[in-house]
Amino acid sequence: MIQHLVDGILVGSFLSLGAIGLTMVMHILRFANFSHAELLSIGAYCALVFDKLFESVLPVLSTKFGPLSITGALAVSILISMAVTGFTAVLIDRLIFRRVRQKGGELSMVFASFGMALVIRNIIGLVFGLSSELYSRDIAFAMVLSRDPLLLVKPDQVFVLFAALIIMFGLYLVLSRTTFGFSLRAIAENPSLAQVHGVNLRRMVAAVWIIGGALGAIAGVFYGLSYQITPVMGRDLVLPIFAATIVGGIGSVYGAVLGGFIVGVASNLAPVVLPSGYSPSVPFLMILAVLLVRPNGLFGEARA
Amino acid sequence: MIGIISYLVFFTTVASILGIAVLGLNLQWGNTGLFNGGVVASFGAGAYGTLMLGGPAQDGHLGGFGLFYPLALLGGMLAAGVLAWIVGKLTLRLRHDYLAIATFGVAVAFENVMRNATSITGGAQGIRGFERPLRDVLGDGFTYNAVFLAGVLVVLLLVYVFLERLTVSPFGRLLRAIREDETAARSLGKSPDRIRLISFVTGSVIIGLAGGLYGTFYAFVSPQDVLPILTFQIWAMLIVGGAGNTRGALAGAFLIWGAWTFSGWALSRFAPVEAQLYTGSIQFVLIGMVIVGMLLWRPQGLFPERLIVSQPGRNREKTQVEGFT
After folding, report:
1. Of these four, A85, B161, B287, B292, which has the most CB atoms within 10 Å of its CB?
2. What is the pLDDT of residues B223-233, one digit of tens each?
3. Dihedrals phi, psi of B44, to nearest 5 degrees
4. pTM of the model
5. Is residue B222 in some structural domain?
């Protein structure tokens, strides 16, 4: 039971990171982006490519940090992957979403995002193969936190949790303390009024995609560290991430963080009451429950 | 020769069944502007419902009530309708992207439950041993398939006429009114939430009917039949054909299904052996590109919706542009 709870919190850390980007995009561009989870795949594979590259070019970097399976090469790769994924997100927006936005309504965007998810996911499958990949082939031994009740945690998972919390705190500071953060929130509240006040809408939209892509890339790598990297990870993550945004309330960054942890914990606690095969349905049940009890989520506001 | 004809019969049957589903989606998306991300859940509910109600008694899982076939098909449609009603009731009054997310979630959960609830649905094995109606009279061969195709075409025609009548009726105008300007419709004393729910459930029942026919045709349904790709295929059919145009939607169904089967055949025939494993991925990329490409370059579809506007003049052009929202 406690093991499930702890695992859930660890899973929640990367769900939250994914959900933050999604909720920002949904708030500012006003469409449900079903291809957001593919940014996690792009990030994970991008980090994998650079990780392998650095390990072969600079073997110095392939020493591990303490008990972690993370190497210097992977740490640098994560940073590169964040940048690459962020710019990929901007590129996809420029090439596809912005043009669809100009032609059709919000729901055309949802259609387009479904189509993009299908294209990205399967191109990744074609390039990297359909089998799963790992950052490190070594077996990561779990630390025994306590023997009764038995509680096992991998060092990587602890690192992932703390890194995610630090990143979220950094984002909180940016959003609440800087002019950039204020502009971003102004655009979300009222795009026309914000533009009158000299906020550059296009630049802000690009910034949202970069933040969403960069956080998605970290989430993807963390998912890869916790499980494995597969071309279909986006397909498996899209519903939990949406559930996190809905639980937290669409548009609320803090809600997305909390929602991610709630969905993570709930999905991991579910096998206690449900047979384990049903866990993919848990995010959907949570969406239904939230819509029934509190349609705008924990921190969301009603908006037409 | 007989091989080609019997293949054509087979192809036309499947394309027509999918065409019925596209017509149901057209009512939801084309006429009412409702986004259904879980077409496959309604389709699957129809197929599973029909086979469970109409099939012979089974060991190991529920079903096998051996109902009279039309009753079983109606039961399948009812199952699809009830599922749609629950989802619609919860989400239609909220921001419209909630409907997209919730219906997508239904489809994922539906497939998951069908795969795991072995004692009810037969699990990954699916439901086998369904006795197709009139099989003792017509046998299993070409005659059966030809008669079945005729039956499917009759159903398709009935659905088509029903929807054509519906769209020109006052109710059809109401649907478009809500799609174009909800506030205006509300100010005229209409209840958009209720009308949208009716449209959503009706569309899902039609999709469930298509699912029931599909299950009957193969006399078998398994979780493999309710994967999300079917939703994408049916969307592609509607977007290519032209949302809001019933005939366009049907043309889209035949075009996309033709392109899908042809690409599958061509890839299995001409692609090198190493690439065979990736045939599915290539087809998925193609269907995704069709959806995105149509939205970029021809969002109104190959056969756009023709709006009957009471006040001709400048407004007509404007309405035409906004037709795809």
Report:
1. A85
2. 888 888 899 99
3. -65, -40
4. 0.87
5. yes
